[in-house]
Amino acid sequence: MTADDQIEWRISNELVAYPDAIAEMEKRNAAVKTGEEDELIWFLQHPPLYTAGTSSDPVELLSSQFPVYETGRGGRHTYHGPGQRVGYLILDLKRRSADVRGFVHSLEDWVIAALGEFGVAARAVDGRVGIWCDTPDGQEAKIGAIGIRIRRWVTMHGFSVNIDPDLSHFNGIIPCGISEFPVTSLKELGINANLVDFDAALKKTAPTFLEAIEK
Length: 215
Hints:
The chain is α+β, with helices and mostly antiparallel strands and 215 residues long.
């Protein structure tokens, strides 16, 4: 049995309320730890909302136009909404490689590889949270976010990538506490892709990610 055989891949086509997603992750986390259920990689979208991570600063919340949810993941304020691919990962690091830093780097590399399928030269930047790329005018911009939580060595939360969201919704926060750079999306980069296309890229590049987090 390969590592991928132990994983349920799930795609939710309807918008998933954030509290419902958290409840599902909490439940699955416990079941994965006890071996009652398989690990889970879950692709979804949320209705417009802001989340506040464990390092969030209230002054970085600039608007209350959308609900704000405090969450146990690392990081600061993040926006989620339609047109953004969110990926939640419930993976047992004890069963794999008990290396938190390595897991985060491998997750970044996975998102970067998927963006590379569309010709986007994305990257992680030391000292700056998230996934970054260059806009057509040569400015650096954030196209994806990474935020995880680990409970009993089982991961929760994961990543988000901007495919075609309303980028004006990010104006209600200072995304991840970084105000010097804008956010962007595949659409703003001039790339005609949808969520189905990006999911296919994630699936194509997933084996390298899964291999990287194995013992």
